[in-house]
Amino acid sequence: MSSAQAARAAKKEWLDKRRIGGSTAAKVLGVSSWGGPPEAYDEIMAALHERSEVGEETPDMVRGHRNEEPIARDYEVATGRKVHRSTQQFTHDTHLMMTANIDRHILGTSTKRGTPGVLECKCPRAIKTSRIRLTGKLPADYIVQLQHNMFVTSWTWGSYAIESAEEPGVSKLIHFDVDRDDEWCNEVLAPKLTAFWEEHIDRQVRPEPEAVEAVELPDLEMGTSLVEIDSPEFTDAVQQYRDVLVQKALAEAILLARKDALIGLTDDALIVEGAGVRIYHKHLAGRMNWDGGKLEEYLKRQGLNPNGFKKASKPTRPFKGYCLETGKPLSSWAKTQAADILGD
Question: What's the Cα-to-Cα distance from 332 to each of 209, 242, 263, 320, 336, rounded to whole Å?
Fold first, then answer.
């Protein structure tokens, strides 16, 4: 074996012991009930040094592993799909520190989708299961784990099978499908995990146990379902919508170019007047904003619950379109089309 091959083999063995799985990813992002970045660091470094005192299974984890098989069987009965136990550890193609050990592999041939999916089996306590059923919302770490696993496997969809050990059975099973959120995985998940890896694991510097900046999660709720529409009216409406998005992107690009041209003719003046218009181009001081993290820490030191000072905004129903060919938002697709038209 050459020295280069030996080095690669040593690096692979080193990497095999230090990976970020779905549950660890939730800790890194600060949305896990089992710890935050410091605990994620301890877990990875304990594996590196082959220690067992960190990361031992809790009773809840043991219960989850014990009930994984019956939950998977109930899921097969409830959905008519076929699932297989997966013993493979998946590794992301480019982010080598990201791995996934999925609960079950949903066979694509047993679904209308025709492609494989990730099955995430969960066995929370009865009170937590009831909360999920009543609110229709998932715990943040559940969302992160499945998105992480779909991103690592490169599979485009997954499904939850949630069943309490105290209330087992097909009739009590909560199950629904979700799609991989490529925008979130590429712009939030991967950068956050990469930064954690480079700043802490590579340097072997344990993160300070401080407040973690809130991470926006994909908007996934129980009961989210995919409805396929194949009608001439819908196809025509989509095409018209995409055409207008391109026209808007073109107008915005042209407007920006025209504004830059005007600025270039003002000789850096603060106020100019001519051609029937007056234009202001003054320097403005930055706005003062509340530092949410510092304020939250201050309230906690005073023995106050920060949530008591928060006000819920009005519920919304965002309209988000994605291009199935590229996986990107339609707004991004439209900008690319506009740039091609303008020759940029």
Answer: 37, 11, 27, 12, 6
Which amino acid does the sequence have at 277?
Answer: V
Spatial distance between the Cα atoms of 122 and 124, rounded to a whole number of angstroms: 6
Mean pLDDT of the chain: 84
Structure tokens at 87: 């013993």
Q: Give the number of other CB atoms < 10 A from CB of residue 179.
A: 18
Bridge-partner residues for 226, per DSSP?
Answer: none
Instruction: Indicate whether 311 pLDDT > 70.
Output: yes
Cβ within 8 Å of residue 87, ≥6 positions away: none
Residue extents of the structural domains in the chain: 3-201, 229-286+321-344
pLDDT 10s digits, 9-46: 555 554 555 689 999 999 999 999 888 999 999 988 88
| C-alpha–C-alpha distance, residues 103 and 122, integer Å | 9
Q: Residue 1 to residues 12, 16, 59, 122: CA-CA distances in angstroms?
A: 15, 20, 46, 45
Second-level CATH architecture of 3-201: Alpha-Beta Complex (3.90)
Task: Give the whole-angstrom CA distance, residue 204 versus residue 284.
Answer: 43
Q: How many CB atoms lie within 10 A of CB 213?
A: 9
Helices within 118-159 (DSSP H only): 126-135, 140-153
Determine contact, residues 250/342, Cβ cutoff 8 Å.
yes
Work out the angle between the directed axes of helices 232-265 and 330-342 (0-180°, nearest 10).
Answer: 60
Q: What global pTM score does this model have?
A: 0.59
Write the single-letter amino acid at 208. Answer: E
CB-based contact 97:17 (threshold 8 Å): no
Could you tell me the end-to-end alpha-carbon distance of the chain, in angstroms, rounded to an integer? 49
Q: Per this entry, what is the length of the chain?
A: 344
In degrees, rounded to 5, the angle at the alpha carbon of residue 306 between the alpha carbons of residues 301 and 309 is 130
* Nearest by Cα to 295 from 214, 224, 174: 214
Give the Cβ contact number of residue 304 at 10 Å: 12
